Amino acid sequence: MDDARSDLESGWDRWSRSFAEIGALAERSTIVRHHGSASRGVHSALVDSFRPVERLLGNEGLGAYFDDDGRIREFQLHPTGGGHASRQQRETLEDDLAGWVEAVADYLEAATALYAYLDQAPDRAALCFGYIFDEDQETLGPLSTNEGELVSGVVETMERVADALLIDTGRAYSLNELSRLVHDTFQGRLTVTVDGPILEIEGFVDHESFVERPAVDLWRALEVLAGRWLRPDIVTSLVTPGPDAIQPDPDPQSFASLQRSWAPPPDALTVESEIRNQLQPEEVYIVRWQTPPAPKDEDEVYELALEQLATAEQNLPEVDPVTAPSETKGAP
Q: Which residues, other chains included, contact 273 with Cβ-Cβ below 8 Å and sequence gap of 6+?
């Protein structure tokens, strides 16, 4: 973290160097400091053609393509490289992965047991989820002995699963970050804001005001897979990669009202096989949208571009500088 802060303050971080090479028409860099230390950097640039963006993404392992036929605009991404991890980081991931998939298998078994019980006692669901969500136990009322064991099993195994997002003492990365270094071609958060109605999306995740290329890492794989065996999934509903400030805060009553389904829980070997299958980027990411009316003059072109730049900055994730250090990085 000290090296990252130093690079950010000196303008020698990877994104400062990448942005310096694209020949921007306009550029803005912002460094946020907390107690005098850099905690976040935002780099923004305005370019007059797609070529600099293509070059920047290409250097980060993504082939990029843009086309406008006058009616429809299309943006594509194609992963072209491998991960950025060292041999030692790859070995560390392999060593730690077995223990984590065991934790996932144990969690699925514990959560399935709870859901099977709640099928027979649905009126106890809000109470049980209240304990799992760490609500004030004095106002919840007591659990039965059986319910206490079921809830404890879920909480204990959830904590072991969520350990993938924590950085152990003496390490620079969490297990989840290591998995991304090994398997993802692009290490930043990549969102696309378009200037017209979206017509088609493939590979990207739709966030209404923008689309996002999903990360290729263990937590994303868990989000995709958990719903296959357990719905709604508890751990991914309660925990997300990032600082405390952006963690979900679901309501036990609302969560209890959701329709529940479950399948026989898989063993650890099955979980590992399915997780590994998910640790592959999509072959292509596509967003197509309607071409907007042509600007009236150059001034309007520039104004629209600056408006798009501001929108892109607003879509960056918020960061709490006090609690942030583990899973959040400065983003381009």
A: none
Q: From first to last of the 332 residues of the chain, give the pLDDT tens digit.
A: 677 778 777 777 878 888 888 888 878 888 888 888 887 888 888 888 899 999 999 988 999 999 999 999 999 999 997 778 899 999 999 999 999 999 999 999 999 999 999 999 999 999 999 999 987 777 888 999 999 999 999 999 999 999 999 988 888 899 999 999 999 988 888 888 888 999 999 999 998 878 999 999 999 999 989 889 999 999 999 998 877 777 888 899 999 999 999 999 999 999 999 999 999 899 999 999 999 888 777 788 778 777 777 776 776 655 544 334 334 332 32
Question: Which helix (H) or strand (E) element contains residue 271?
Answer: helix 268-278
Cα 16 to Cα 7: distance, rounded to the nearest angstrom:
9
Contact 188, 14 (CB under 8 A): no
Structure tokens at 314: 């607003």
CA dist 281 and 213 (Å) reads 10
pTM beyond 0.90: the answer is no
Q: Where are the domains of the chain?
A: 1-48+293-332, 87-172+219-278
What are the residues whose beta carbons fall under 8 Å from the beta carbon of 289, sequence distance 6 or more?
A: 72, 73, 194, 195, 196, 197, 198, 199
